[in-house]
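During the no-cost extension, the postdoctoral fellow (Dr. R.K.) reprocessed legacy sequence entries with the updated structure-token encoder. One reprocessed record is reproduced below for audit purposes.
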Amino acid sequence: MTPLATQPPPASPLAAANAVMGRFRWTICALVFFATTINYLDRAVISLLKPYLETEFRWNSDDYANIEIAFKLAYAVGMVGAGRIIDKLGTKLGYALSTALWSLAAMGHALVGSTFGFGIARGFLGITEAGNFPAAIKTTAEWFPQRERALATGIFNSGSNVGAIVAPLTVPLIAETIGWKWAFLITGALGFIWLVLWMVYYETPAKHARLSKAEFDYINADIPVGLPAEGVTEEKPKASWATLLGFKQTWAFVIGKFLTDPVWWFYLFWLPDFLGKQYNLKGTAIALPVAAVYILSSIGSVGGGYLPLGFIKRGMPAFQARKRAMLIIACCVFPIVFAQWLGQLNMWLAVLVIGIAAAAHQAWSANIFTTVSDMFPKRAVGSVTGIGGMAGGLGGIALTALVQKGLFRHYESIGQIQKAYYIMFFICGAAYLLAWVLMFTLVPRMEPIKLDGEE
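Re-encoded structure tokens follow.
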């Protein structure tokens, strides 16, 4: 027998709970990761099929931009409604409903026979895909303690990059071998496979049969002072949009999303077009550089979650850690303004700089999403995330309508499309620094929100 003096001290209940619950939390994180992967795979398909669809339907730049706007407008409207629905139905049913509907919408593109029809299909896809992030953020808030949420968010948010990586590696190949319609059908069908796994394996902490008191306490161990340890029930009334919009914390999130989400939309919908026009890449040749950008993005997404966690472990309060991390991340985006100049030396230098900027965006997303669960009760997280998502969608529409359509149309007409991309890259580089200044001027320090019925 080991002498008493040399026996290790007993683990604390919270440490023991972490050891037991780790596999539950990270299994749930994996499910949300795969949902986000499928979500982005479905929305990225059209950008890779653009050359095939331009030939078949005789699209011009305006046609594609209008179809893109239809998606973004529907996504923006869907985000605010989806957040309310997720808060009302709960994560299990709400996430399942959203995934089933967007998978049907993705497959429905194969039935379209006109440009107008694609606009309708993209609109339906946009409004249904909007449910992913409110559900994902709410799931993370339910299952992860505050100090782990940025990391969990970074991991599941990296699914957006994996979806964007899988798309160029598979979609052109499917289109060239069995036709573009099958690209929509095959990718859309993946959502139903995920749906089965979600319904079998997911449950909220409030209903989890194996959730002990110690495990529940671990999840809620570092809830900020002033916020209740919710998660057993959600019987309190939902906060109205008017109530939530009365808080400056909501507006800080809205401003951050409005200014930075459009940059990600730009990468997602226009990166293949940029590589095609700048370097004459076509078909499967475009797969490797696009995949490289999103591989870097995946690294940034997870790294963005680790960055504030490192500050927190050194004793910095969670909100201040996120604030510092987001400033560092915003500075990492700025070198994209040199993408055009570097690209004249070598295409891969441009790809590298764009990839670093895309990685920084994903790191930013891992942290900006987490500011919502830092400051708002869990019963309001879906709604606030939806409001911010709507703002991001509207920002994407504004960028497409006011900059991309006018700017790109003008420079393409005079044979100087490179200048249009130079201007766009400058906008991308400045957006995050501006967003950081405005967000943390509005909310310079941690101020938890208390809704009606909370003390």
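Residues 1-21, 224-235 have pLDDT under 50 and may be disordered. The two ends are 52 Å apart (CA to CA). The remaining legacy entries will be reprocessed before the final report is submitted.
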